[in-house]
Amino acid sequence: MKEADVEVKRPTPAGPRVIDTVMNAAKLSSLRERLGLVYGTDRAEVDRLADLEGANVDVFRDIISQVQKNVRGWGGSLYFVYVPSWKHYLPDDPTKDARAEFGIKERSRILALIGEMGIPIIDVEPVLEGQKDPPSLLPFRKPGHFNEEGHRLIAETIIKGLSHSQQSTNLDHKPASHN
Predict the structure, then answer these.
(1) pTM of the full structure
(2) Least enclosed by CB within 10 Å: which of 40, 52, 115, 174?
(3) Containing H/E element for 28?
(4) 106-159, pLDDT tens digit by residue?
(5) How remote is the C-alpha of 12 from its chain's centroid?
(6) Residue 144: CB atoms within 10 Å
(7) 102 vs 5, 41, 144, 146, CA distance in Å?
(8) Is residue 123 within a helix (H) or strand (E), and if so which, with residue range?
């Protein structure tokens, strides 16, 4: 037997390679999690920010009012598009936190406020809720964002909302017929 014919066996590393560890730490999702920007918001912070009856609702209303004024200033139309969090469709997900519950509970209050301001609302939630299997609108039924089908449904809903609003505007501004 020649030395070249002998296969040299190298020991398998016991743990992860250094490069794998560095790459995992550098991933944006990992950085977000370490900075506390995703999953697991402090409950006291959520409670403080969730107060839509106090100063926060006034700030929200002021911001939306300013945006509405700016958009009208350049001749545009402002629409409020409500897209529920993907967390709403994964009720048993361990990463679900108080922010998802807040979004669900405050939906009607936010939409009422926007409606009172005369801003047209395009609500995507009924379309997503009306799907046979809403979690299938998420990649691999996992948290993070909507998949291609979810984005398609959202886009179609927005287009229909804009088209309907445009048709209503055209009917409202239709010149009176003269007999």
Answers:
(1) 0.63
(2) 174
(3) helix 28-34
(4) 788 889 999 999 999 999 999 999 999 988 998 888 877 889 999 999 999 999
(5) 43
(6) 14
(7) 67, 12, 18, 20
(8) strand 121-123
How many residues appear in the chain? 179
The span from the CA of 128 to the CA of 84, in Å, is 9
Q: Find tokens 């445009």 and name the residue.
A: 166
The terminus-to-terminus CA distance of the chain in angstroms comes to 109
Kindly list the distances between the CA atom of residue 121 and the CA atoms of 15, 18, 80, in Å, as whole numbers in the listed order.
53, 50, 5
Environment class of residue 137 by beta-carbon count within 10 Å: exposed (0-12), middle (13-18) or buried (19+)? buried
User: Tokens standing for 72?
Assistant: 């009208």
DSSP 7: P
In this structure, what are the phi and psi dihedrals at residue 30, rounded to the nearest 5 degrees?
-65, -40
CA distances from 150 to 33, 99, 143, 164 (A): 25, 21, 13, 21
Is the pLDDT higher at 89 or at 110? 110
Give just the sign of the alpha carbon dihedral 161, 52, 55, 37: negative
Q: What is the CATH number of domain 9-172?
A: 3.40.50
Q: Nearest CA to 120 among 154, 83, 85, 164?
A: 164
- Boundaries of every domain in the chain: 9-172
- Alpha-carbon gap, residue 42 to 40, rounded angstroms: 6
Backbone angles phi, psi at 15, to 5 degrees: -125, -175
